[in-house]
Amino acid sequence: MSTATAVAVFFLIWWVTLFAVLPWGVRSQQEGGEVVPGTDPGAPLVPKLGRKLIWTTLVTCVVFGVLYVAYTERLLTIEEILKPFGLNFNTKY
């Protein structure tokens, strides 16, 4: 796997993980009883984005590490991934 491909895959995993981590520990303004006029009551009271970015990076490192080892050790191949979908990677059209 080239460095550019590894960086691209890491970024994609990081981006998807970010959206999974964003709702962790969120308390809305309405739940906290401090609704700021002109804002949505469901807006986060304290978003804690720094922690979420750190958690996103940690989770991404674990997921990327597992996938990288599976790829480099040939535990997971493109052919195996495509087979359940009825696709053949080696077919010439």
Write up what this structure looks like.
The chain is 56% helix and 0% strand. The protein has 93 residues and is mostly helical. It has one domain. The longest helix is centred in the middle third of the chain and has 24 residues, at 49-72. The radius of gyration is 20 Å and the shape is elongated. The protein starts with a helix and ends in an 11-residue tail after the last helix.
Shape: elongated
Output mean pLDDT: 88
Largest sheet: none
- DSSP summary: helix tally: 4
The low-pLDDT segments are none
Structural class: mainly alpha
- Range of strand content: under 5%
Q: How would you describe this structure in keywords?
A:
single chain, mainly alpha, 4 helices
Characterize this entry briefly.
This protein is mainly α. It is 56% helix and 0% strand.
Walk me through the topology.
Elements: H1 3-21, H2 29-32, H3 49-72, H4 78-82
